[in-house]
Design brief:
CATH superfamily: P-loop containing nucleotide triphosphate hydrolases
CATH class: Alpha Beta
Helix content: 40-55%
Structural class: alpha/beta
Largest sheet: 5 strands, parallel
Order of helices and strands: EHEHHEHHEHHEH
Strand order of the largest sheet: 2-3-1-4-5
Bound molecules: thymidine-5'-phosphate
Amino acid sequence: MALFITFEGGEGSGKTYQARALHRRLSKLAIPAVITREPGGTVIGERLARWLKWSQNTGITPLTELMAFNASRAQLVAEVIKPALESGQVVISDRYTDSTTAYQGYGRGLDLEMVKKVNGNAAQGLSPDVTFMLDLPVEEGLSRKGANKRDRFEEEEIAFHERVRAGYLRLAAEEPERWVVVDGNQAKVKIRDIVWQRVSPLL
Ligand code: TMP
């Protein structure tokens, strides 16, 4: 059955691991499921992702960032997410529109209503049924990433990442029926079980 699940969180929060673990579990149960990620997930999107994360790409305005993440999203929704949901599959996405609200809205300070409109257009109105936020103290997430080869976002100041985290928590509080905030400091297997407890009754 069609079900749209997203994983959100700051840098180093472990969402990629959990998204993949959920996809593996569904595959083992022969439940048709697609895993994807943002930015990226399509050939065009992966090019945009590299450009967006490139550390030497300084001088990008917040509005340009908003548009480029949404360009990647528009392609992903049209090529992958919409067709998969229409054919009754489970879609798991590592980041989606909430990342843009958290990073470009709360982090960069763009007008939240404008961000919502642009996101909604690129997403063709498709919003997740369930969103997991893996929550971690900012410095801890960044230290998990290590100091080498940091991308443009990982190089941002701590205050930026704190705004992103607070933004996520605000989004979760505004829509508690959709969000599950998970303490990212727990063991991976424990988090995996929390995710499964929420997803399995929906299948
Ligand atoms: P990741 O591949 O490590 O998740 O990197 C993606 C980076 O892009 C991450 O720092 C979050 C950022 N991002 C935004 O700023 N806005 C968005 O809409 C998305 C999807 C990601």
